[in-house]
TrEMBL record:
<dbReference type="Pfam" id="PF00440">
    <property type="entry name" value="TetR_N"/>
</dbReference>
<feature type="domain" description="HTH tetR-type">
    <location>
        <begin position="19"/>
        <end position="79"/>
    </location>
</feature>
<keyword id="KW-0238">DNA-binding</keyword>
<dbReference type="Pfam" id="PF17754">
    <property type="entry name" value="TetR_C_14"/>
</dbReference>
<feature type="DNA-binding region" description="H-T-H motif">
    <location>
        <begin position="42"/>
        <end position="61"/>
    </location>
</feature>
<dbReference type="InterPro" id="IPR001647">
    <property type="entry name" value="HTH_TetR"/>
</dbReference>
<keyword id="KW-0804">Transcription</keyword>
<dbReference type="InterPro" id="IPR009057">
    <property type="entry name" value="Homeodomain-like_sf"/>
</dbReference>
<keyword id="KW-0805">Transcription regulation</keyword>
<dbReference type="InterPro" id="IPR041347">
    <property type="entry name" value="MftR_C"/>
</dbReference>
<protein>
    <submittedName>
        <fullName>TetR/AcrR family transcriptional regulator</fullName>
    </submittedName>
</protein>
<dbReference type="InterPro" id="IPR050109">
    <property type="entry name" value="HTH-type_TetR-like_transc_reg"/>
</dbReference>
Length: 212
C-alpha cells in the first residue's frame, strides 16, 4: 500500500486569523508613521514590526498608506448594527453612549491612542487622508441599509440615504474634532472614552435637528 500523496505543509489561515494579521499590520504601520512619518516608513519596516515579510504586507495591502484601513473601518459594522437596533423614541445621540465609544476605541488600540494618532495624521498626510475619506464613503451605504431595514423601507429609498449622509458627516466631524483638538486633561483611557462619547453625542444632536 502506497503512502498518501495528499498536500502537506501549513494549514491555510482562517479568515479570523487573516483579519488579526491585517489589524496587527495596521497598528504597526500607524506607530511607524507617527514615529518617522509616512515617507520615512517602508513595507519592510512594517513587516519587521509584525514579524512577517514585506511580501506578506503587500499580499494584504496594495500600498503602505492602505495598511491603516482596518483601523478606519473597524467601527462601521458596529455602528450599522446599533442603527438596526435603534429603539423607537430614543434620541439619536443617546444611541451612541460611552459603551459604543469604548468599543470603537478598543478596535484601534488598547487605549484608543493609536486611532487618535492616526486621525491626526490625516491632516498632514494626503495618502492617509484619501484612505480616511474613502472609508467614510464606503460606510455611508452600510448606514443607509441599516436605517432602511429599521424603517422597513427599500434600500434605495431617499430618506435613509439622506439620513445616512447626515449621520456619516456628523460622525466624521466628531472624530476629527476629538482627534485634532488638544486633550482637555492628561491622557487617560476612561477620560478618553468619555470625551469621545461627549463629542459624538454633541455632533449627533446637531445632525438630528436637521437643516433649518
Amino acid at each position: 500500500m502506497t503512502a498518501s500523496s495528499g498536500r502537506t505543509g501549513r494549514p491555510p489561515l482562517t479568515e479570523a486569523r487573516k483579519a488579526e494579521i491585517r489589524l496587527e499590520i495596521a497598528r504597526a504601520a500607524v506607530e511607524l508613521f507617527v514615529a518617522q512619518g509616512v515617507a520615512g516608513t517602508t513595507g519592510e519596516q512594517i513587516g519587521q514590526a509584525v514579524g512577517v515579510s514585506a511580501r506578506t504586507v503587500w499580499r494584504y495591502f496594495p500600498s503602505k498608506e492602505s495598511c491603516v484601513r482596518p483601523l478606519f473601518s473597524a467601527g462601521i459594522d458596529v455602528i450599522a448594527a446599533r442603527l438596526r437596533e435603534w429603539p423607537p423614541g430614543l434620541p439619536l445621540e443617546d444611541l451612541f453612549g460611552p459603551d459604543l465609544a469604548t468599543g470603537l476605541l478598543a478596535a484601534t488600540g488598547p487605549d484608543g491612542a493609536t486611532g487618535s494618532a492616526l486621525v491626526r495624521l490625516t491632516r498632514t498626510e494626503p495618502g492617509l487622508r484619501a484612505i480616511w475619506l474613502q472609508t467614510y464613503d464606503e460606510a455611508e451605504p452600510a448606514f443607509a441599509r441599516a436605517l432602511a431595514d429599521r424603517a422597513g423601507l427599500p434600500a434605495g429609498d431617499l430618506r435613509p440615504m439622506i439620513q445616512a449622509a447626515m449621520l456619516n458627516a456628523a460622525l466624521r466631524a466628531a472624530v476629527e474634532r476629538f482627534a485634532w483638538s488638544p486633550p482637555k486633561t492628561a491622557p487617560d483611557a476612561t477620560t478618553g472614552e468619555a470625551e469621545v462619547a461627549e463629542t459624538l453625542r454633541a455632533a449627533l444632536a446637531i445632525a438630528a435637528e436637521g437643516v433649518s
